[in-house]
Amino acid sequence: MIRIVIAEDQEFLLGIIGSLLSLEEDMEVVGQSSDGAEVLALVKEHQPDICIMDMDSHSENDTAEKLHASGCKLMILTTFAKPGYFERIVQMDIKGYLPKDSSSEEFVSSIRKIMEGGRAYSQALMESDDSGKGEGEGRSGSSSGEPGFQAPSDQQNKTLETVRGYLTTFKDKMKLPAG
C-alpha cells in the first residue's frame, strides 16, 4: 500500500486529488493539508511513502530538504511552468514534476513509477524550462533515474514521434478482419 500525504493550497483541488487517489486499491491518503507548514507535521506523524505538493507550498520552510531527511519521496504539481524550475527540481532530487492538468492515469502511474524507484517528469514542463536557453544549453535531467542522463534534443523528439507514427500505422495495418 502506497501511503500518501497531499499538500495543496487550493481546497477544492486538495479534495479532488484525495478522492482520486482513494479510489486506487494500492494507495491510501493518510493526510491532507492546505497549509505548507502543516504538511511537515503530517509527514512526521503519518510517515508516508510520498508527499504530493503544490509547487508554491514546497518552496516554503525548506520543505523538500526536510522531507528527504524523513525518507519521504516528493512529487511537485504546478499550474504554470516557471523558467529555471526544472533544473531546481532535479538538483533537489525531487522525484516527480507534473502539471495539475495531467490526466488522472498519468498522475496515478507517475506515483507508482516513483515508488518503483523511477522519476516522473512532464515533458512539457521540461521543454518550457528550456525555452529561454540558447542553442546547446540543454538540461541534463534524470527522468530515467540514471545520473548524467541527457534529455532528448528537439531533433531526437521529432524522430521519436515519426517512429511512433510508423509503429501505429504498422499496428493498424496488421489488424485482421473480425469474423
Class, according to the CATH hierarchy?
Alpha Beta
Question: How much of the sequence is in beta strands?
Answer: 15-25%
What is the CATH architecture term? 3-Layer(aba) Sandwich
The arrangement of helices and strands along the chain is EHEHEHHEHEHEHH
Number of helices: 8
Strand order of the largest sheet: 2-1-3-4-5-6
Going by helix content, strand content and strand pairing, the class is alpha/beta
Radius of gyration over C-alpha positions, nearest whole angstrom: 18 Å
- List the domain count as a whole number: 1
Q: Any idea of the CATH topology?
A: Rossmann fold
Mean of residue pLDDT values? 78
Proportion of residues in helical segments = 40-55%
Strand tally, please?
Answer: 6
Sketch the major β-sheet.
6 strands, parallel
Q: So what's the overall shape?
A: globular
CATH superfamily: Response regulator
First-to-last CA distance: 43 Å
Low-confidence stretches: 133-150
What features would you describe in this structure?
- The chain contains eight helices and six strands.
- With 179 residues, the chain is an alpha/beta fold.
- The protein has a single domain, classed as 3-Layer(aba) Sandwich (Rossmann fold).
- It has a six-stranded parallel beta sheet with strand order 2-1-3-4-5-6, sandwiched between helices.
- α2 runs parallel beside α4.
- Keywords: DNA-binding, Phosphoprotein, Transcription, Transcription regulation.
